[in-house]
Amino acid sequence: MSISNKDFMVFSGTANLPLAEKVAEYLGKPLSKIDIKHFPDGETFCQVQETVRGRDVFVIQSGSPQPNEAYMELFVIMDALRRGSAARITAVIPYYGYARQDRKDQPRVPISARLIANLITAAGADRVLTMDLHANQIQGFFDIPLDHLHAEPVILKYIRDMKFAKPIVVSPDTGGAKTAYGYSRKLGTGLAIVAKQRTGDSTVDAFSVVGDVKDCDVIMVDDMTATGGTLSAAAKMLRENGAKSVHAFVSHFPLTPKGMERLMKESELDELVVTDSIPIREGFDPSKLPFKLTVLSIAPLIGEAIKRIHADESVNDLFR
Question: What's phi and psi for 287, nearest 5 deg?
C-alpha cells in the first residue's frame, strides 16, 4: 500500500501549539500524542506515544519565538519519528527562523539559513513545508523537496473586504518591491516604494518615497517585522507625503522587546495585520497599541497544503 493510501498523522512541538491545534481542527483530526520535556539542565527530550510505523507524518514547529529551543525540539521529534519507522516525515515550519542569515555579507560569518537546512535534513526530514521565506534563494539550500506557501491569499481576502476608497500598494523598502508589485497587480492598484537606509540592526532612516501616495489608503506589505523599525520609518515618511491612512500587512511577527516599545510610542500606523505563523510574544498587550492589531490565521492554508502533500496533489494550485 502506498503512503497516500494510508491515513496521515500530525504532531506539534511547543513553539506554536495554538496554530497546530487550528490546523488539526481544519483537518478534522486531533494532534497525535507526544510527550516533550525540558530537563533542568536545558536538554530536550521527547517520546512519541503512538505508533508511526509506515505512516505519513507531519511535524508542525515554528522557528520562533525562541529559535534555538524550537529547532532542537524539531530535531529530536523527527529523530524519534525516524527511529519509530515513519514512512515519510514532513517538517512544517510556518516561520523559518534564521532566514535573515542567508548570505556571507561580512568576513568570517556563517550562512546560518543553510546550516539550519542541513540540520533539518540530517534530523530526518524527507520534505519541508514553509511560508514566506525572507529570501527565495533559501529554497536552494535544501536537497529535499520544499513546498513554499505564501500568506498572500489570506491577506488579499482581508484587503478586499476592507474596500478602501483610494488604495495604493507600497513596499517599505526596495527589497520588497517585487512582492508589492504582485499585490498591486492582483488588487488593480498603483505602486509606490519607500527608499530606506538602515543605520543599525534595529534602526532605519527612511528618506524618500517613489510614487504618489497623497490622499491614498496605503497598503504596505512586508514579509516580517521584528523591531518595527522599517514599518515605523516608512509610515512616518508616507504620512509626510500625504497618505490618508497606512495599513501594514506582514506575514511574520517575531516581535522583540525593542519592537514592542517602538510600536507603542513611535508608530504612525492605522493598522498592523499579521498572521499567526508565530504566537504573539508573551507580555505584549495589543490593547495598548495606538493602532489596531489584526491577526489572520494561516491554519486553513497549512491544513490544505498538508492534505495535498499527503495525496500527492499540487500545492501550487492553492495560489491560482
Answer: -65, -15
State the sign of the Cα–Cα–Cα–Cα dihedral 314, 316, 223, 238.
negative
Structure-block grid coordinates of residue 99 = 532566514
Note the Cα 309 to chain centre separation in Å: 19
Summarised one tens digit per residue, pLDDT across range 109-120 is: 999 999 999 999
**First-last CA distance in the chain:** 32
* CATH entry 3.30.2290.10 includes domain 152-297: no
Cell 498572500, located at residue: 152
Q: What is the pLDDT of residues 252-300, one digit of tens each?
A: 999 888 888 888 887 899 999 999 999 988 777 788 888 999 999 999 9
Query: What distance lies between CA 89 and its chain's CA centroid?
Result: 20
Catalytic residue set: 196
Domain locations in the chain as residue ranges = 3-149+300-319, 152-297
Q: Are 238 and 218 in contact, with CB atoms under 8 Å apart? A: yes
Going by their DSSP bridges, the two strands 44-48 and 34-38 should be labelled as: antiparallel
Taking the C-alpha atoms of residue 179 and residue 257, their distance in angstroms, rounded to an integer, is: 28
Q: Using CB atoms within 10 A of its CB, is residue 168 exposed (0-12), middle (13-18) or buried (19+)?
A: buried
Q: Pairing relation of β-strands 190-198 and 167-171?
A: parallel
Is the CATH number of domain 3-149+300-319 3.40.50.2020? yes
Residue 133 falls in which region: left (phi positive, over 0), alpha (psi -120 to 50) or beta: beta
Query: What single letter denotes the amino acid at residue 41?
Result: D
Identify any residues that bridge with 271 across adjacent strands, giving them in sequence order: 247, 292
The pTM score is 0.93
How far is Cα 191 from Cα 80, in angstroms, rounded to an integer? 49
